[in-house]
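As noted in the main text, all predictions were made from sequence alone. Below is one such record, for histidine kinase.
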Amino acid sequence: AEEALHQARKMEAIGQLTGGLAHDFNNMLAAVSGALELMDIRLRQNQPEHLARYIRTAQDATRRAAALTHRLLAFSRRQTLAPRPTPVDELVAGMVELIQRTVGPQVHILTHAQAAPWPALVDPSQLENALLNLCINARDAMPDGGQVLIETVNVPMDGPAARAHDLPEGDYLLLRVTDNGVGMPADVLDKAFDPFFTTKPLGQGTGLGLSMIYGFARQSGGQVRIASEVGRGTVVSIHLPRAMEGALPVAPTDTRAMADPA
Ligand code: ADP
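Prediction:
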């Protein structure tokens, strides 16, 4: 759980970092576009002798930009999933104190667990990160305070239900986080899972929280959906596959939590 808080602090730091990276990237693009413009002018003036210098400037800038994206991609691929049967209700109960401390006294954290909830087959520390992220998002959506409800529900899905969720037929444990915050307009909801999409001020949001949660849910064989209404609040539903008794342990898999632009 403390690891999840550490992760949340790291996300804040990444927010500041991405602001800086975007700035560096813009400078490199400006160098390339400036060099191209000068090449264009020289060519039209029939003075090709200056071209080599501008070409070198542009090449330098693109090389630096490529190095930067490689570092970012290496960072995004660092996570590894180690799924195991996880009692999600107990995981939630064990995190409430930390979450409450993190979101502050203005926000009320409530939990409700289904009787005899199924264990889910997930990486517990990734799930902790996801949960803390969702609660921080909920807090940010409730500047004057409010309430966050964290629920766990057993959801057996037959064919049609599973297809509607874009999941294989079977049993799922639903982790649902509901807030009564500002909600999302349609255009925000459309982009909410996009990496780096954020409506928060520079340095405060990374735009990575929901995209990482999406990657985590899909890699775990589950699904995440958001329902939101402006002025009423937001519901994030994460369906996670039920861990079957006697199931063989699953080997850790490499995640690709963030979209790879390559
Ligand atoms: P970040 O929180 O760093 O902005 P996320 O990927 O977690 O990145 O969220 C992307 C955007 O989705 C947020 O900037 C916000 O506009 C919106 N959002 C996420 N969660 C909520 C919520 N619970 N209520 C309202 N808007 C939300």
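Residues 255-262 have pLDDT under 50 and may be disordered. The chain is about 50% helix and 20% strand. These features were considered when defining construct boundaries for the mutagenesis experiments described in Section 2.9.
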